[in-house]
Amino acid sequence: MEWLTFKVGEETFTIETRFIYRVVDELKIAPVPLMPECYLGLAYYRGELFDIIHLGTLLKGTAVRPGREGRVMLMKWPGRHLGLMVEEVKGLSWAEAPAAIESPATLENGPPMPITPQHLWDKLMGLEYGRREV
User: Model's pTM, two decimal places?
Assistant: First the structure.
C-alpha cells in the first residue's frame, strides 16, 4: 500500500493514498457559523464541495481557532468529501502496514499515526455544534 505522510503541529500522521484526491496550496474556504472549533468551513473545488477541518484541533480538542495557513489535503471516499488543513506534507511511502513505514521523514518523531477518513468523519459527526440552551 502507498501512504501519504504529513505533519500537523508536532505530530506525524499517515493515510492511504487511495483516499487522497488532491493536495492544494491555496483554497478559498467559506466559514460556516455555529460549527465546532475544528471546522474551518466549506470549499468548492473542481465542481465538488468539501468540508474543511483542522486535524490537530479535531483530535486534540484545542480551544484555539487554527490558522488558515498550510496545505489542504482533499479526500474522497464513497459518499463523502473532506479536506484536512495540514502544516506540512512529508511525502509518500510504500508499506504493507503503517507501522512498517520507515522513511527519513517519519523517523524523527517515531512512526506516523495511521488515520482513515471514515474515523475522522465519525469523530467530526460526534461533536456538538450550534447554540447550547442554558
Answer: 0.78
